[in-house]
């Protein structure tokens, strides 16, 4: 325990972060591990009316009602069937209205990696058809490219309900 | 070690406001002429503790004003002054001013100094004029700004005895469990006590034995109590002290001790062990301000004792507790489901254990729920004052009768029901109760009665506000409604429908609007507020005899009685209070309006069908109306038939907010967690009807 903390402090001092990586199809993404609340298996959700299509619904997470977002749908990737191997990562976002928890559905969790700040490269501009505003940067870890997500950007608008179609 | 006093400010304000409420209540209960010493004691304690607190925190304006109040109260307590209507009015005003001052201090705003000074002047005037006939004009010998009021000589009520007590304990006094402070306190309760401390025997600090008593006292007690009583106080100290009790002649006329600046000063001095300042009443000069602190000695502990039964807990903590208990209930029901699948010899034991767990969890849940409940007297307590002020202003005689003020309801409901109730009570006094001469002419007693009644009825709380006044005038309401084209000239309405009109916005039948009520804003707001709480309001009235408004409210906002319904694979909770009837439609009962809208005949009108699966976009089991069920629900006065697949069951559910992690959703008021751990949405019926109507319109 103490060693872990020490390692984290060392890592932070060296300007590196621990990232939880997960996969969506062929792609690998990473989120700051300090934002991860828990990882749990797929279970059916309760649908929410008038929600954007990538917000699948809500789940009971030890008494609080937590919205679940399908990242494949959020990124306009091909839809995949939910299997017992499908994983929900529960994350914490900081939005304008305070701390909120939500879950993201991903294909699978891979690894925890150390990413040095110097290894993070900005995402190139792809033009209008690929939106990169929620990609914090790209890191190359043992030959694989990991896209580091800015989850506040990614989810903030969904949970605070700014840019949404009207109720009708 | 500097202590940051600011951290205690909140507690001080909160306690002071509550104390002022109790002071106000006590003032209103006070009988003119024959005041109950208990009540005056309560009032005095409030003023005293606010004075002490504000002096400690450095709110000098508050302390100074409260001090004047306290002086007046001390006069009342010592029976040196009559409790007249004028005095109670002044004190009630003082309560308002103190509240204002504290509020200003709390918000760090400037205090309305003029208002404070005016009232302070009035108070001092009243003190100065004590025992003078009220009519006599005041040759006021008063310095308004000075916190020390002019001491005024007055004949003191004669007492039977003056005892001079020389109390010289031996050093071992404490060892035998004797407490001189307790004895002095006891003495001060049987009469007017002055204390002189003899600290000559006190050794230097190095030589001081903390367990020995070095102090001696010379006490003078003016009392009706006989020698045996005074002796009795020292019974336990016998053999541990030299005690001499001698009787002295009671002086014919002693100057009344007047509380003054010396009192707070003496409290601040640490050397003053018992808070009783040195005083020689026999030769008390007129101007010398005598500390009234002797009173404080025995008031202090009493006030403390009454607070011992409760603690202050923030509502957040209780909500957390509620959440955790809610979780426990769900876990427990999951275990019970699981337990029923076990077989074998241990299974029976397991199940009986689970049954005990279930019972305990339910009890726990109820207890936690009760923590949030407060007696409705928290709301009711403001009415005696309000009715008194209003009736005074209107020149009416009104008596307020309150029953069931110990009926408990949830704090959140309480906070929101206050304003509507104020409005109803105000209406009753202003419009309901007639002027005394009108009442006499109608053969009614001159004094009208406004009554407030609260009671529990079937999982809800009912609050009634009524009066024995003129009642609602149906003809006038109808005339007004016709004038405003709210109803057609030849339309006839039932009584209930007529009374319903008063809840329409901008509707007032008062011939003259007053500053109290009658502007026509109100009843619609009252009804809206009550509806927002999930409650209902109805009117009963008889012309010439009075009216009664009956409000029904849920006991708590944390829990709702719901009907679970199934649509496809989803479960929704419909609040029971919105449901009128559930029915199955037969083929051919549904008519189409303009080719799209579906309606059916229900009781006395056509009701539109709202297909829940369409509004919420879920896949239903059936889209054929006769294969599912129609649930007639009402929201904001509109009825719709909600089409669902099936009814599942009724249950109480704990409401959880969707907004904590997500956001508001139209047509949904919250969510709850079902026994199997799944989430079900709770429908917001009025919102749902709005969404559905927009869909139909689009």
TrEMBL record, chain A:
A Pfam family cross-referenced in the UniProt record is: CheW
Keyword annotations for this protein, in alphabetical order, are: Cytoplasm
UniProt xrefs under InterPro entries = CheW (IPR039315), CheW-like_dom_sf (IPR036061), CheW-lke_dom (IPR002545)
| SMART domains associated with the record | CheW
Taxonomic superkingdom: Bacteria
Gene3D superfamilies under this entry? CheA-289, Domain 4, SH3 Domains
Q: Which residues form the CheW-like domain?
A: 16-160
The record's subcellular locations are: Cytoplasm
Q: Which PANTHER family does its entry note?
A: CHEMOTAXIS PROTEIN CHEW, CHEMOTAXIS SENSOR HISTIDINE KINASE-RELATED
What is the protein's given name? Chemotaxis protein CheW
* Source organism: Steroidobacter flavus
